[in-house]
Design goal:
By secondary structure, this protein is an alpha/beta fold. It has a single domain, classed as P-loop containing nucleotide triphosphate hydrolases (Rossmann fold). Helices cover 29% and strands 27% of the residues. It has a ten-stranded mixed β-sheet, sandwiched between helices. It has a two-stranded antiparallel ribbon with strand order 1-2. A hairpin with a 2-residue loop joins strand 9 and strand 10.
Length: 246
C-alpha cells in the first residue's frame, strides 16, 4: 500500500524522504539553539497554506505570536494575511504562562494542560479545516511538566490526537549543546514517526548547517548528512550534497 505524503515544500527536503512526511503522522524537529527549528516548522505551515491549500495551526509555547509574525516577515511570509484568510491560526501558549495579558484570537489561557490545548486544537480545526499543526516547542512543555515519564505520556496523547484529527504535525525540541542525544529529555523521538536533526557545527574556521533524517518509519530516506542554508526565502536543503566525516 502506498502511503499518502504531506510535502513540506522546503526546497531539497522532500526528495530525501519519498516526497515528504507521511500524512497524519507526527515528526520531531530537533537541534541546538539557532539551528533553524522554528524556521523549518514555520516554513512547513506557510508552504502548506500557500502551495497546497492546507490550513495550519502553529502553537507557540516560547514565543509570543507577534514575535513569530515579525520573524516570518523577514522571509516575506505575511502571516497576518494568512490568518485573516483562515489559512493559519497562531495559538499564544506563552503569554499566560509568564503572567502577561494577550489580545490574540487564540490563547491557551491556563497553565499547561494537555486536554485544554487539544480542545483548543479541535476547536480551531473545526473553524479553519486545518491539515497541519506545529508545536514549537515541546521543550517548554517538558520543563512545565517536570517529570519525564509524564511528559512522554502527554506527548503521546498529543501526537495520537493529532493523528486521529488528520493533522500532519511537527514537534520541535532543543538539544543541549555538545550532547550526543537527539532530544532534550530523551523521550520525544520515541512518540513520533520520525526525527530530523538540525545542526550548526564548526568545521575548521567556519560553521556548517546540516540536516540529518535520523528515523522515518514507513519511508526510505537518505542516510546521509546534508548541508542546508537559511536564505531570505527560508530553508534550502542541498539534497545532492553530503558532508563527509560528519
Amino acid at each position: 500500500m502506498k502511503l499518502e505524503r504531506c510535502p513540506s515544500g522546503i526546497p531539497g527536503f522532500d526528495g530525501l524522504c519519498e516526497g515528504g512526511f507521511i500524512r497524519d503522522k507526527s515528526y520531531l524537529i530537533s537541534g541546538t539553539s539557532g539551528t533553524g527549528k522554528t524556521i523549518f516548522a514555520l516554513q512547513f505551515i506557510v508552504n502548506g497554506a500557500l502551495e497546497y491549500n492546507e490550513p495550519g495551526i502553529f502553537i507557540a509555547t516560547e514565543e509570543r505570536p507577534q514575535n513569530i509574525r515579525e520573524y516570518a516577515s523577514t522571509f516575506d511570509w505575511d502571516l497576518e494575511k494568512l490568518e485573516d484568510e483562515n489559512m493559519i491560526a497562531l495559538v499564544d501558549a506563552t503569554s499566560t504562562k509568564i503572567g502577561l495579558p494577550s489580545d490574540e484570537k487564540y490563547v491557551d489561557i491556563r497553565p499547561f494542560d494537555t486536554r485544554s490545548l487539544l480542545d483548543q486544537v479541535i476547536s480551531i480545526q473545526d473553524e479553519i479545516n486545518a491539515k497541519r499543526c506545529v508545536v514549537d516547542s515541546t521543550t517548554a512543555i517538558g520543563f512545565m511538566i517536570n517529570d519525564v515519564s509524564k511528559f512522554r505520556i502527554e506527548l503521546l496523547k498529543m501526537s495520537t490526537t493529532f493523528e486521529i484529527l488528520g493533522l500532519t504535525s511537527l514537534l520541535t525540541c532543543e538539544i543541549v549543546e555538545g550532547s550526543p542525544a537527539i532530544s532534550r529529555f530523551g523521550v520525544e523521538n520515541f512518540v513520533t514517526e520520525g526525527a530530523i536533526v538540525l545542526r550548526f557545527e564548526r568545521s575548521g574556521n567556519v560553521r556548517i548547517r546540516t540536516l540529518e533524517i535520523v528515523k522515518m518509519r514507513g519511508t526510505k530516506h537518505s542516510y546521509k548528512i546534508h548541508p542546508f542554508d537559511i536564505t531570505d526565502k527560508g530553508i534550502v536543503v542541498y539534497a545532492e550534497e553530503a558532508i563527509p566525516g560528519f
